[in-house]
Design goal:
five-stranded antiparallel β-sheet, globular, 4 helices, 37% helix, two-stranded antiparallel sheet, alpha+beta, 24% strand
Length: 119
């Protein structure tokens, strides 16, 4: 029996140090949106040149990721505090792009034609 305890404690120790993939992919903040709020967030996030996949917009930030789907806004980050900070700072996309880094915001980087990076 002792061998099984050692194995489970070592695996939990390992997951605490390196984190589990499930934990990283879990949304920390998820908000339901009205149609008007969705359109407002869509207009705002388009300024950051998001990755677009169908009706989903995704903006990757240095400390997390913002995903907008019809009727839902999801903010993923390493922890809840970072996710809350990202959500609070989203309105700064109304500011000139030169100010965005001060709020932890950025353009998404996309691969363009012939492998060029577009900002």
């Amino acid at each position: 029996m002792k061998g099984m305890e050692d194995e489970s404690s070592s695996s939990s120790w390992f997951s605490r140090i390196f984190g589990s993939k499930e934990e990283e992919e879990r949304p920390f903040l998820e908000q339901s949106l009205s149609r008007e709020a969705y359109e407002e967030y869509r207009r705002l996030l388009m300024k950051a040149r998001p990755e677009i996949s169908g009706d989903t917009l995704r903006v990757r930030l240095p400390d997390g990721e913002v995903e907008l789907r019809r009727g839902k806004l999801v903010v993923r980050a390493k922890n809840r505090e970072s996710a809350e900070k990202i959500l609070r700072n989203l309105h700064h996309y109304e500011s000139p792009p030169s100010l965005w880094p001060a709020y932890g915001l950025s353009y998404s980087i996309r691969r363009g034609e012939r492998g060029r990076i577009e900002l």
